[in-house]
Amino acid sequence: MKKLTFFLVYTVIVFSIFSYTTSIEKTNLKQLLHAQYTNKMAGASSQLNELQKAVQQSLLFSDPTALNDSLQDVWRLSSDIRQTIGDLPLDREFTTQWMNYLGRLGNQAKLTMTTEESKANWNKSVTNVASNLSSFSSEWDVATAHLLQEDKHYNKWLDQLSNMDVDSNFTNLSASVKSYTESDFPLTSSESDRQKKKDLQALKDQPISEKQALARFKEMFTQYDKATIRIEESAKTAPYPFYHITFHDGIRLGYADITKKGGHLLSYLVERPVDESTLSQEELVTRANKRMNQLGFDDLKIVDSRENTMAWHLNYVRINPDNKAKIYADGVQVKIAKDNGEIIGINSMEYIQKETLKNQPMKKINWKTFFDKNVEIVEEDLAYSENDKMEERLCYELTVVYYNKNVPHTFRVLVDTETAEIIKNEKL
């Protein structure tokens, strides 16, 4: 009995010590996290004040050198604040809007430093930016003071880290920043076109019914005619309406998304075991091309491929029938099983809406004087690529090799056919 009493007393003491130690550790962690977020919040406030001054200072100068110094500060500070805000568990909607605003402000400053045309755009918008940043700075001070004045807000930070919705003064800031973005940095026509394409707004096809979508799926994938299939419409909050189809057939389990407008295949994925035996890459590509043609993708060309243990991943792009140029923005990604060449994945989101291409002159360029004497051109083609203004430009696409002390380095260079501007330069 004495031993049992001793054991119970000992157990109570141990648990008491453990609970006390755990409580102390939790309190220390709480204080450490609170201090960390407080310091970052204070840092963001300081950076915001510096950004506000830098924007106002940019109004003072016409001299390019002096103006560029101020713009350099705007670009640097907007980037610094984005990084700081990204580390804080604030209202998600506010963080998204504020990061977007800072990104557009920084990009505008950077473009102004490098493009003469953008200086006029900066002068038009900078007055509003300076005024809005001043108003936002006051709202920010009120919101952060309220958040930091009481220790209980630690729990709200934990809720934010857990992706839980919590009420805060930053909800009002989110609405403010959104209005600032719309007034200070309205979408250019190119950006607007890009957003419309992303949201499938240009589709003019007539809507199809759920029954028609199911028939369309079975027409494309006849092997699943007897599979267990379930179909449902996308949520009302989706950026565009589509039908989501899930199917199960023996060892195969997968899904397909089909647009409500026109019944276009958005995506397709099937999971199944893949045998160890593999076909050759040439045979796999041949089978993939044949199957893509059967599915209606008959104007594509493979531009890139990579493999893993089970499949090859192929990147297709649309070919412009007029000049045979590759349109990288109109791409389709395909996953093909190594064992039998079956297509087990398709992503055709970019392909559904064709890019709007404008007629563009093709200036002859002397590549011998354009490139260094140690550069060798190994392949030349035509391709469309997006420039800094999000405009699709026709380019000479050149694969070149540069020899440095007899060591070859391969690059892919895209040169605008009209302006000879280098749109892209990447090492392969």
UniProtKB/TrEMBL annotation:
<dbReference type="InterPro" id="IPR048402">
    <property type="entry name" value="YpeB_N"/>
</dbReference>
<feature type="domain" description="Sporulation protein YpeB N-terminal">
    <location>
        <begin position="25"/>
        <end position="121"/>
    </location>
</feature>
<dbReference type="InterPro" id="IPR014239">
    <property type="entry name" value="YpeB_PepSY1-2"/>
</dbReference>
<feature type="domain" description="Sporulation protein YpeB PepSY1 and PepSY2">
    <location>
        <begin position="167"/>
        <end position="358"/>
    </location>
</feature>
<protein>
    <submittedName>
        <fullName>Germination protein YpeB</fullName>
    </submittedName>
</protein>
<dbReference type="Pfam" id="PF14620">
    <property type="entry name" value="YPEB_PepSY1-2"/>
</dbReference>
<dbReference type="Pfam" id="PF20769">
    <property type="entry name" value="YPEB_N"/>
</dbReference>
